[in-house]
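Loading example: each entry is read as two labelled lines plus one structure line.
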Amino acid sequence: MRAFQAGRYAEAIARWSAQATRDAELRPALAEAHFRRALAEGLPGALADLRRAHELAPDEQRYQFHLGRMLHRSGDRAGAAAQYRALLSRDPSNAQAAQLLALLTLEEHLHADLSGLPGMTPELLAWAAPAQALIAGRTPPDDDSPLGRFWRGLDRVAAGDPAARELLADDRPLPAAALHRLRRYYRGAAAALAGDTDAALKLWEQTYSSGGGARKLAENLAVLLQQRLEALIAAGDEQAAAALAREWAELSGGVAFDELRIQALDRGAYTAASAGDWAEAVALWEAAREILGRAQGLGSPRPILHNLALAYERLEEWEEAAEAWRGLLRTRPRRADAAEAGRWAWVRKRIIECYRNAGRPDEAVTVFRQAIKAEPNDLDLRVQLADALMANQQERAAYNEIKRILQIEPHHPEALLRQAAYLSERWEYAEAEQIARGIAERHPDRPDLRREAAAVFLHHGRQHAEYGHYQRAYDAFVEGERYDPENPLFPINQARMLPAFRPRADIAPLIERALTIAGDNPETWVRAIETWAMHNQIDAARALIERFEAEMSPGPEEYVALGGAIFQRFTPPPAPLGLFRAPARPKPVDTPWTGLALELLDRAVDLRPDDAQIPMGIATLLLVSRPDLACRFADMAAQRNPDNPDTLILLGLALGLDEQVAEAKSTLQRAAQMARRQGKRDTQEQAQEMRRLVGTPFLRSMIQAGLSGDSFFDDDFDDEDLEDW
Amino acid sequence: MSEPYSDPYATLGLARDASADEIKRAYFALVRANPPERAPEQFKRIRAAYERLRDPAKRAELDMLLLERWPAPERRRRTPQLDLRVLPADVLAALRALSDLDRSDWREHFEKVQL
C-alpha cells in the first residue's frame, strides 16, 4: 500500500499479484495499480496494464474506456471501437466514450453519419458539426467564438478567399495547444493566398519550430524556403544562402529543394575555405552531407565527402578526416579503370595518414583488415594494409603481407616497389636495384612506376655520395635518369659527382641538360648555379646567374636561396659548441665568392624596398657565420619596420654577436621598452633576457645551438630540461 | 582561421585538364604582366601556383588535394507549387484536439484504494 501511495506502482503490483490469487479482496487494488501505471507510463506498456485491470475488474467502466482510448491511440481502431461500443451498450450515457467513438468513426469514414451511433447527443453532434461541414465542403455554422472563427477561417482558406486572413487573425485562446499550431499554420496559408509569402514563411517557420501540426506544413515551408534560396542565389548573396540552407538542413524537402540547399552549402563552404575559415566550411559541408544522407536521386556524395575530409585535415581533426575519407571510400564503384584505381589507392593512403596523425595507426590496420575480409582477392587493398602496418611500426608484418602479394602475383608493381624500399632500408642495394630495374623495364608505358623505380636510384645515389662513394653515386644517378628523364636532379647530381673521380670532365652539358628539362623552375637554376659553386667555377656561376636573370626574372626568394647557399659553402663553419668553452667570434673572411653572395643578397633586398621580412631572413641566415653582415641587414629591417620589437631584438643579437656590446644592450633595451608599450609581455621578457646575455660567452653558444638545433647536452636530456634551461 | 584555400588553376586562369604546355604559357604570360618588382604579391601567388602545377607527379597529387565543386544541375528543376488546400486530416486533427483522446491528466478517474 505504501508503494502504491508513493506512486511506485510496479512494486505495488508485484506485491499484490502474489497475494491476489489467494485473497480476492485484493483484486480491485491490484486493478487500480495496473490502471494508474498505464496512465503514468503511456503506450506501449499501457495496453497490457489496462487489459489486466479490465480482467481483474470487468465491471469497472473507467478501465474499459481507457483501454479503448489507448487502443485508439495506438492505431487499433477496430479494437477501440469494440471497447467503446461494449461500454456504451452497458451505459449509453457515457459521453466520453460516445465522443471518441464519433471521432473514430469519422477517422474511418470521412462522410459517416454520426446520428445513429450509440450514446450520441445533440451536444456531441454539435461538437462534430463544424468538422463534418468542412469535410463535406459546406460552410460551418456561424459562430463568433475563437473556435467558431477558427472553423470559419478554415472554410475560407478552402474556398481560396483572402478573407480567411482576418478570421484566423484572432489571437484569443483556443481549448488546446494543437489547435493554436493549426490556426497559425492556416494563418500562414491565408497570408500566402493573399500573396504575402513573407508573412506565410514567418508563420510556418514558427509553427514548425513549435512542433508542427498541419499535414502540409513541411512541404509548403520547403517551397517558400526554396523560393527564398533561389532569390538569394540569384542576387549573389552566397553567405545568406548558405546560412539559410544550413538552418533548414534538417527539414525534409523535395529533390529540387535538396539540390538547391546542397548547392548553396557547397558554395558557402568553398567561400569560407577560401577565406581560411575551415571550421565554417566543415559545418556547411556537414549540413550538405546530412541532406545527402536522406535524399535520393541527387547523385554521388563524393564531392562533399572529399571536401569534408580535406577541411577536417586543415583543422587537424584527424579522426573525423579519416572517417570522411572512409565514407568516400564506401562510394567506390565495384569496377574501376586504372586512373580511378589510382584515386582510390590515394584515398586509402590518406586514411592511413590521418589515423597516424590522430595517433591511431592501429585503426587504419583494422580498417584494411576488414576491407580485405570483404574483398580477399583485391591485391591493391593488401598493399594498403602493408602501408598501414608499416605506419603502425609493424615492419615484419608489413613485409610478410608484401611477400604474400608477390606469391599471388609476382610482378605486382606496387608490392615490388615496397619490397625494394624495404631492402634499401636494410642496405641491400643490389637486390633493391634489381627489383626497381625490373619494374622500369616491364612497364615502359607507365611513367609513374618508372619514376618510382628511379627514386630508388636517387636515394641510393645520395647515400653513396654521403659516404664518399662518388663513382657509385654517379652510376646510380645515370641509371635513375634512364627511367625518369624528366627529373633535373639526375643530371645535376651527375654534374656534382663527376669531377670527384674524373677531374677533367666537362659538366656543362649535364647542367644544360637539367636546364633544358626544367629551366622553367627557378629551383633548377639555383641548383645549377650551386653546382658551379661546388666546383669553384665562379665565372661559370656568374654567367649562369646572368642567364637566370635574363630568362626568369628571379624574385627575392631565389636571390636569398642562392646567396645563402653560396655563403654557407664558402664561409668557414662556426666553431663547434663546447661544454666548458664558448665558441669564438668567427673571423670575417671575404673572398670573391662571399662577394658574389653579398651581391645576390643585396639584389634580394633591393627588389622589395619596403619589405622588412627579406632583410630579417638574411640577417638570421648570417647571424652566426657573419655577424658583421647580419648587423647590416638587421639594421635595414629595423629601418623598414621601426615599430616591430622583434626586428630590434634581431639587431641587438647581431650587434651582440659582433661584440658591439654597448650598442647591443641599448638596442635590446629599446626593444624591451617598445614591447612593453605594445603590451607584448613575452617579447619584452625575451629582449630583457637577451640583454642580460650580451657580453657573456653564453650568447653565442645559445644562438648557435638554437639555429643549428645542436645542444650542449647529451641526447638523454629531454625537451623539458632544455626548456627549463 | 588557418591558411586559406587557393586553387592554382584558378590563379593561372586555367581549366583543371590544362596541358603542361598551356600551364607554362599561362605562367609566363602572367609573369610578364606581373613582374616581381612591380607586383610582388601577385608575382608570389603566380609563382606559387605554377610551382604546384609544373611537376606532373606533384600535379597529380595536387589534383587530389583540390576541393571538388558540387556539380550544377544539368537542367533546373521546377519549383513546386504551394498546396494550400484544407486537408481532412487537419480537420480531424482539430477535432481530435477537441476530444479527450490525447488528454494526459485523468486524476478525476482515480479512485481511492481501501484494503
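The mean pLDDT of chain B is 87.
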